[in-house]
Design a protein that fits this description.
Order of helices and strands: HHHHHEHEHEHEHEHEHEEH
Number of helices: 12
Low-confidence stretches: 1-8
Radius of gyration: 21 Å
Oligomer: single chain
CATH class of the largest domain: Alpha Beta
Strand order of the largest sheet: 3-2-4-1-5-6-7-8
Shape: elongated
CATH architecture of the largest domain: 3-Layer(aba) Sandwich
Distance between the termini: 24 Å
Strand content: 5-15%
Structural class: alpha/beta
Mean pLDDT: 88
Helix content: 40-55%
Number of domains: 2
CATH topology of the largest domain: Rossmann fold
CATH superfamily of the largest domain: P-loop containing nucleotide triphosphate hydrolases
Number of strands: 8
């Protein structure tokens, strides 16, 4: 690794540490109370740990899975001390994340055999969807990729204008139509324009309404079908953006969108302003969808490629 890459990696890790600080402080404050006065991991400690994990937005199903794994380890070692609980938790959570997040990417990259690589971004209004698209475009451009944005959330003029601001800020072209236009038509024009420009990646915003599931499914299916008239296997990635600060509401949003369309990856935003970082662990596990990106700050460079090992290291540091 070059000197400059080392500095960048160090800065990135520092941002991640800082972004997860509230989650970590809250979690360990609860954990310390759960094991206070106990020297051995017993049923009481496990009951308290279960409560800590659920209250840290890890989710009930994932919490029970973690507790079962720790119980199995306690059964092997009858005298497992509470001083080892931190290490065991770290190992089990890393193991859970590894089951879904099988890759270990550290930089913003694209598959070489897909050009243009088409990303369709979904999620409700207010989760940071447009901001995530803008930051993603910026990161891809820094890697030397040619990026085209598509404003297919045509139900709100503000959504189109906000995406235009990001396109201008990053310095990438954006395809737009008037408010109320057919979203599928915008997607079609965007991909056609990207092909003509020999672009590397297309990022298409979609409407953020959590309305009737059937309507949402039909709308997203139509957008995908029209995309495939230009690039037959598009979209290559359906990225669901979730607001990590909403905790359990993020689970509900994931449930709605995974029922409406085939979500292939997740971006969890706003982790820096919340103590609900545990939501990343629960959502990744319960929906068996890899977390691809996390937002850990306001800056344009504070969208990071999710690295399970760095995340666990920052959380348990």
């Amino acid at each position: 690794m070059s000197f400059f890459k080392k500095i960048f990696a160090s800065d990135k890790k520092e941002t991640l540490d800082k972004g997860l600080e509230k989650s970590k402080t809250s979690f360990f404050s609860k954990l310390n109370k759960a094991v206070a006065g106990k020297s051995k991991v017993d049923d009481d400690v496990l009951d308290n740990l279960e409560e800590v994990l659920v209250s840290s937005d890890v989710g009930v199903a994932t919490t029970l899975k973690i507790i079962e794994r720790i119980e199995a380890r306690v059964a092997k070692d009858k005298y497992l001390g509470t001083s080892e609980l931190n290490k065991i938790l770290r190992e089990e959570i890393a193991g859970l994340l590894s089951e879904t997040n099988t890759g270990n990417a550290t930089e913003f990259s694209l598959p070489q055999h897909k050009k243009p690589y088409v990303i369709m971004v979904v999620g409700v209004n207010g989760v940071g969807k447009t901001t995530t698209i803008g930051k993603l475009a910026s990161q891809f451009k820094k890697q030397g990729f040619n990026v085209v944005l598509g404003a297919a959330d045509t139900f709100r003029a503000a959504a189109i204008d906000q995406l235009q601001v990001w396109a201008d800020r990053v310095g990438v072209p954006m395809v737009r139509q008037n408010m109320g236009s057919d979203p599928a038509s915008v997607a079609f024009d965007t991909i056609k324009s990207a092909v003509n420009q020999n672009a590397d990646v297309v990022i298409i915003d979609t409407a953020g309404r959590l309305h009737n599931k059937i309507n949402l499914m039909n709308e997203l299916t139509k957008v995908k079908r029209v995309m495939q008239k230009v690039v037959d296997d598009a979209p290559h990635d359906v990225l669901l953006v979730l607001d990590g600060s909403t905790g359990q509401n993020a689970f509900e949003q994931a449930k709605q969108f995974t029922a409406a369309t085939e979500v292939t990856s997740l971006a969890v935003t706003k982790l820096d302003g919340t103590a609900k970082g545990g939501v990343v662990i629960g959502i990744s596990d319960q929906f068996q969808i890899p977390v691809k990106y996390i937002g850990v700050g306001e800056g344009i460079d504070d969208l990071q490629v999710f690295n399970k090992f760095e995340f666990v290291d920052s959380f348990f540091k």
